[in-house]
Amino acid sequence: MSLKWWEWPSVRGKLETFARAIQGAYPYRVIIETDRRRCPTGYCDFSRQVIAVNPTLFGSLPDEEAYLLTRGVLAHEAGERRWREPSRLDPLTSTVANLLGDETLERFMMGYFAGLVTPLTQLAAFMYRQARPVRPSDDPSEVVSYFLQLRWAERIGEPIKGSLSARNQALWREVEPLVRAAWEAESSAEVDEYAGQIVDVLKLKEIPEWLKKLLDLLGKIQGERGTDDRAERGKPGQGKQVVESHDEIPKLPTASPQGPEDHPIEPKPFLHLVEAIKGQVEELIQELSFGEGGGGTETSRLGGRFSVREYLHDPTHPFLVEGEKGKAPPTLTWHILIDHSTSMNQAVEGRKTRMDKVAEAVMLLHLVSLELAIPHKVSVTPDDILIADGSGGEAELALIAGIVPALTSYEDMGKTMASHAEELLSRREDIRLMLCLTDAACNDWQLGRKVVDNLKGKVEVIGILLDADDYIRGYGEKMFGRERFICVRSGELARKLGAVIRNLYGV
Questions:
Q1: Helical H segments across 331-469, by residue range
Q2: Regarding beta strands 431-437 and 50-53, do their DSSP bridges make them parallel or antiparallel, or are they unpaired?
Q3: Is residue 385 within 8 Å of residue 339, measured between CB atoms?
Q4: How far apart are CA 186 and CA 194, in angstroms?
Q5: Which residue has the higher pLDDT, 119 or 245?
Q6: Distance of alpha carbon 13 from the chain centroid
Q7: For 475, left (φ over 0), alpha (ψ -120 to 50), or beta?
Q8: Using an 8 Å Cβ cutoff, are 143 and 202 in contact?
């Protein structure tokens, strides 16, 4: 199953930026919370100074519509923060005040930010669809249902669903001026006063549970506003500001499965992988940014250390060294080949498998490649499935996460190595590497060893065995040779890979 739209960090970042922007100069922290126990729909917490939304609320709708509706909820919660003052009312009056104030604050936000008209109108259409028809009973709570639905119906140009009884029609004529005055109020305290009058006129005793649940879809307010809470304020329709346009449906990122139907690479959430290796990314960058040897500068081939990072960030600027001025440091490219066979599912640490470790290592190599602009490819055996080459953005990170777990029992690692050898031989970089993440127990390891031997001095093949025991180490030595494979434990890849490159190239 592909990632949900809210699982893409770029989308979450846009939602958070959007919600901060419409709060003014001193925004609350914004949380995108998918755990319904913590956030069933949305909330504005004045004590913690947080606004939150749960995007799974709209999970059954098309992605683009759900995205805009989530923005609508965030706009509503930002309005709670900017406009609402928590008050101490009896539960019945508080409920009526909240449903009246929801319209008031949304009008305020649409008047202040022209770009909020679309998401808040779409949110009104969604709420209108959720509302049950007004029933022609004499229960006064049906009048509350009527003017709650009325605010959404008027905004989207639809009729009220259902009708009031004759008695409730008379009550509606009496409270309508109070409702409309509340919708145009300049403060939540003023809305509270109108709410109390409406409760008295209707002689309300309770609010039906179904109506409370409908109101909860717009979230709740919590806590007390602190003295340090500097919410910006303004009258509806005045000081209209522009925010990012919401009239166009956004193009949300996607990632499709790669490979054959019987064992495809499925895109999966990847933030946990990025978090797991973030400390190692800088370490590997430092390992590839070789410093100078002691006693003055030297050429890289005579014991100095080249700076891949400096060169790749500015390839037109020569790396000047004493004695050979104008000579640039070596350039680097690598292909990363992943053994995706069932044997890679062996547990190596707690609940983690060897393939879990491979995913972390590949994410590390890919992120470093992006940071240093190293030309690279990430490919999965046995079908040589290309899942990353630096051109696919977050979709590539999702596919790297999707190599867990392995879904096939056949490797063809040697065949994949032979295929990539030809392309690497055609590259012009000074250092050309083939990094093979495997347990080396491959069906065609003899072909793999032949590729390793034929490429020596032209393209260096390095086997990377993760959390390998002595038995697996024997496979690694047969397939790659003693000097061209490394056994890596958690956190060791950066240091060991740097050491192997220096030994192979004498830098």
A1: 354-372, 394-401, 413-426, 445-455
A2: unpaired
A3: no
A4: 12
A5: 119
A6: 7
A7: alpha
A8: yes
In whole angstroms, what is the distance from residue 415 CA to residue 481 CA? 18
Average pLDDT over residues 463-489: 84
Average confidence score pLDDT of the chain: 85
* Sequence-distant contacts of 30-38: CB under 8 A, at least 24 apart: 30/74, 32/6, 34/6
Beta strand 376-380 pairing with 485-488: unpaired
Average pLDDT over residues 428-455: 92
Vertex 337, ends 334 and 340: CA angle to 5°? 165
Q: What confidence category does residue 247 fall into, taking pLDDT thresholds of 50, 70 and 90?
A: very low
pLDDT digits (tens, 9 = 90+) for 379-419: 999 899 999 999 999 999 999 999 987 877 788 999 999 99
- How many residues are present in the chain? 507
C-alpha R_g of the chain:
31
Is residue 306's pLDDT more than 50?
no
For residue 175, which of 156, 208, 150, 153 has the smallest C-alpha distance?
150
For 322, 325, 331, 366, 483, the CA distances from 303, given in Å and listed in that order, are 13, 16, 16, 28, 20
Query: Range(s) for CATH 3.40.50.410 in the chain?
Result: 271-505
Beta-strand relationship, 385-388 and 376-380: antiparallel
pTM (two decimals): 0.79
CA distance linking residue 434 with residue 361, whole number of Å? 14
Is 379:420 a contact under the CB 8 Å cutoff?
yes
Task: Name the burial class of residue 171, with classes exposed (0-12), middle (13-18) and buried (19+) by CB atoms within 10 angstroms of its CB.
Answer: buried
Band (119; pLDDT cuts 50, 70, 90): very high
Cβ pair 219, 44 in contact under 8 A: yes
One-letter amino acid at 39 equals C
> Distance between terminal CA atoms of the chain?
45
DSSP string, 231-292: -----TTSS-B--S--SSPP-------BS-TTS-B-----HHHHHHHHHHHHHHHHHHB--P
- The strand pairing partners of 291, in sequence order, are none
**CATH code linked to domain 271-505:** 3.40.50.410
Q: Give the confidence band of 303 by pLDDT, cuts at 50, 70, 90.
A: very low
388 bridge partner residues: 378
- Residue 492 structure tokens: 């060791």
